[in-house]
Specification:
single chain, 283 residues
């Protein structure tokens, strides 16, 4: 359970975004009777997936080559990068979700007119962002776990679930309200990101860059057991620890509170009811 749900959420959210992108591209080509171009799209998607996996493996490889202090600093930097990715991702999707299908179809139409390489490149670029974000988020979220088995199982399960959902959406077997889905997962991801930031701050303290490692904000170790099921759940998903430092808690609150408030404050232009996923893909 430790770190499973947090990584499952990351895999589900990022994977579904990528699945929606691919579904939109495939549906557009099928609808316009250009199935012959599908292999080029799948090639671009495959290269993006392979590069993302390789990037994730590279992060773990580099970590193993570093000294203790260097490793703590490396993990801190990647954690902060992951938080930036999550924050940018949830606000970008909130702003551009409604125009995503139209923009992708326009870019694909332009790429088709240019040639094969342009189609491959367009499909690659459409997916690689989610892929690299997923790899970075997985690396950062996995640092707090005792082993990589739980986080790896979580991210793989989330990605597989997103692929199944993407396929069901494509064949119109299910309908998902995008606004509800991305709002709920966005709020949860903000809390996951706050936990990742807290872990990054802890690494900076371990590396000696920030002070106050043993200056605890509170101590709940008397009743909070991180080895219990609820402790594993809260620790793995939100990085809840029994003795966090003052700086860790300041960073957690300073990030989570304003970001959640800004995320939940809907702009007037998108306050109307959300279109359902099938309409986004098909139109």
């Amino acid at each position: 359970m430790n770190a499973f749900l947090g990584n499952f959420l990351i895999g589900l959210r990022e994977g579904l975004e990528a699945s929606l992108v691919v579904s939109i591209l495939v549906a557009f080509l099928v609808k316009t009777d250009r199935r012959r171009i599908l292999p080029q799209v799948w090639l671009g998607v495959g290269v993006a997936v392979a590069l993302s996996i390789g990037f994730g493996a590279f992060l773990f490889y580099v970590k193993d080559l570093l000294t203790y202090e260097q490793r703590e600093l490396f993990e801190a930097v990647t954690s902060i990068m992951a938080v930036v990715f999550v924050t940018w991702m949830i606000f970008w999707m909130r702003k551009f979700a409604r125009s995503l299908a139209k923009d992708l179809r326009t870019k694909l139409d332009e790429a088709v007119s240019v040639g094969t390489a342009a189609v491959v490149a367009m499909a690659f670029l459409a997916v690689i962002r989610e892929g690299l974000e997923t790899a970075t988020l997985f690396f950062a979220a996995a640092q707090g776990a005792s082993t990589t088995a739980g986080p790896l199982l979580g991210i793989v399960t989330g990605l597989l679930t997103s692929v199944v959902l993407g396929w069901l959406i494509y064949v119109s077997a299910i309908r998902i309200n995008l606004t509800v889905f991305f709002t709920v997962t966005g709020c949860l991801l903000v809390l996951v990101a706050a936990g990742i930031l807290k872990y990054g701050v802890h690494d900076l303290q371990e590396a000696g860059i920030l002070p106050g490692l043993y200056d605890h904000a509170f101590d709940i170790s008397g009743w909070y057991d991180p080895t219990t099921w609820y402790g594993s759940l809260l620790g793995g998903m939100f990085n809840v620890t029994p003795t966090p430092s003052v700086i860790e808690m300041v960073a957690w609150i300073a990030y989570a509170v304003p970001v959640l408030l800004l995320f939940l404050k809907r702009p007037r232009s998108v306050a109307r009811p959300a279109a359902e996923t099938n309409a986004v893909i098909a139109n």
